[in-house]
Design a protein that fits this description.
The chain is an alpha/beta fold and about 280 residues long. The strands form two sheets. Strands 3-2-1-4-5-8-9-10-11 form a nine-stranded mixed sheet, sandwiched between helices. A two-stranded antiparallel sheet has the order 6-7. The longest helix has 22 residues. The chain is globular and about 50 Å long. The chain binds 3-hydroxy-5-(hydroxymethyl)-2-methylisonicotinaldehyde (PXL). The site of 3-hydroxy-5-(hydroxymethyl)-2-methylisonicotinaldehyde has 14 residues, from strand 1 and helix 7.
Amino acid sequence: MEKQKRVLAVHDISCVGRCSLTVALPIISAAGAECSILPTSVLSTHTGGFTDFTFRDLTAEIAPITRHWEALNLKVDFIYTGYLGSFEQLELMKKLFDDFRAKDTLICVDPVMGDNGSLYDLFDETFARGMAKLCAKADLIMPNLTEAAFMTGLPYEEKNYSEDYVLSILDALHGLGAGKVVLSGISFDETKLGAVASDKTKGEINYLMNERIPGYFHGTGDVFGSALVGALSNDKTLREATRIAVDYTVACIRRTAKAGTEVRYGVCFEKELPYYIDLLK
Ligand code: PXL
């Protein structure tokens, strides 16, 4: 029997709205990995499209929780961070990486901060610079184009950009420090959308595209990131894992568009889990 991998997912709990931990746990579990969690905050809903949401910061819990794990001599194969709510949490993540990085641990940072050219509520440009410093300590980062632009200081281009533009962003992202970059939200023509996976250690850049389904769908970044980490935990290469994450995310979006559900409640990823598991075979 091969050893089951352990992924530590560090995100908020948005109780309603299908993002962060309510997405990471089921998807990473479906991939067959053990998904341990470190919740960074608890919100009644996520912050996109809802007003009057509650927000309970859990920063004070992080050090005691991780101290207990250290006493257990806990080992993790992947650390996967997403939504972080404060500078203090960025600092605590740097310590977490130092404390739990073993020889084969892959540190994956999704610098969740924005989409479509703007930052989510509660974030600003100073935070983006702080997040860029956290990315320096990661093996793999997975920003979308908006987050990439805010972290590198390069302009955000909405459409009609060239491959040179994407290559310059990738270059700047690698410059932050990570050897592996998966940049999502890439589109060279109106009908296709996908991601580019760049593995500097191998000198490989691959574009993984699929159909663009018109509209904006909330929480897709977390579906994508979780599916990517889940696939990597199945020993897929970065290129294969990105292909799987793109195809699964598009299937979830297609199902949501057909169902016509309110997009702020997230994508219908659950019924596409069998498809994800098939992709992993
Ligand atoms: O899906 C990203 C995300 C995660 N967590 C919270 C959010 C968002 C995006 O809006 O608000 C709390």
